Amino acid sequence: MSTHKDLSKPLKGSELEVRVGSHYGDWCSLLIYKDARVDMARLDEVVGSENWKRTHYAEKNNLFCSVAIKIEDEWVHKDDVGEPSNVHSQKGEASDSFKRACTNWGIGRELYDAPYKDLSIKLEQKDLNSKGKPNLYGWSVKNKIVDNKVVAVAIFDKSGTIRVKREI
Fold first, then answer.
1. Which of 17, 67, 79, 140 has the highest count of CB atoms within 10 angstroms of its CB?
2. What is the pLDDT of residue 90?
3. Is the omega angle on the peptide bond into residue 115 within 30 degrees of 0, that is, cis?
4. Contacts by 142-150 with C-beta closer than 8 Å and gap 24+?
5. pLDDT > 90? residue 92
6. Rounded to a whole number, what is the distance in angstroms from the first to the last CA of the chain?
7. What integer pLDDT is reported at residue 2 of this predicted model?
8. Which has the closest alpha carbon to 3: 47, 41, 48?
9. Nearest to 102 by CA among 59, 44, 151
């Protein structure tokens, strides 16, 4: 049977997405991230949908999320704060606080370490939208996991070409 400790097993590349972190000249940094659905699926898979819950609350003009997991007969909570998004401010803040609280449980914590850190690419014309900004829609991530640790990552553009490959 799975335990809450299984929450921290590395996420598969198919569970991850790519976005632009910053854009400078013909280069951009890439950020690999998980969305809230990945966290919900991992919680359901590992502890069961009836054994976890989330609660949002405001404190000092910030939105927090508490993710509680039932361990034996006790609810154990881990909380974190979110940041509003540029598109849907409140929804983004709620989602962000949930994802951060889930990271406190170990889900996706590996995204803060190598080989996911400091990824950048030289942009090609096909990577830019009509306004000259990077467009990474349709890009994908593949990773190699050995002994419960991510040892390699590759990022593919929408044509299937490897644009970044990193091993540790």
1. 67
2. 80
3. yes
4. 142/13, 142/14, 143/10, 143/12, 143/13, 143/16, 145/10, 145/12, 148/9, 148/10, 149/10, 149/110, 150/10, 150/110, 150/113, 150/115, 150/116
5. no
6. 31
7. 61
8. 47
9. 44
